[in-house]
Design a protein that fits this description.
mainly alpha; MetI-like fold; membrane; Amino acid ABC transporter permease; ArtM/GltK/GlnP/TcyL/YhdX-like; transmembrane
Amino acid sequence: MSTVTMLTQLGKGMISTAEIFSLTLLFSLPLGLLVSFGRMSRNRLLQAVTRFYITIMRGTPLMLQLLVVYFAPYYLFGLNLRGYRFPAIILAFSINYAAYFAEIYRGGIASMAVGQYEAAQVLGYSRLQTFFKIILPQVMKRILPSITNETITLVKDTSLAFVLAQAEMFTMAKQIAAKDTSMMPLMAAGVFYYIFNFVVAFAMERIEKAMDYYR
């Protein structure tokens, strides 16, 4: 296989990888915030449910979660799985990463001084206004390095989509390598992943600098 053809096929796999990455962040970041609210709730039942959810998501392999999310509808309800592969991948990745993001959010929110809330109350802010206008922007600034680490990990974890036969970049690289009996496709995939991670890290660094209030 020519180098151009190999890179073209890897590029197609890269598009799938980017889709998994983008959609996972789109759903898991807000879901993680909601889960963190439940984790900090005064309602013991809600707190217990969210704690159990986080424990399961963080305590079991993502690969296993992908298989369960994909095959469970068939084995439990006999549903047709046609067209469900990609949505199942996004769902599994999103609920997995939401658990990690929830703990990051919780740590950031818990680190805020009580005086921030008291000052907002004196100024007449409601609880929602206090959180979204005062607390959350400061929390995001504090937790951004941790979010960046998880985001970079997500780029590499997208390769786990191969267990559901999703043709992302790593799967394409393995198929080409097996066909051509060459390590070159895997090395090229490694370069693709490195560039992807470099771009993500650069973008997150720019966001972090933009949120630096002391510049």
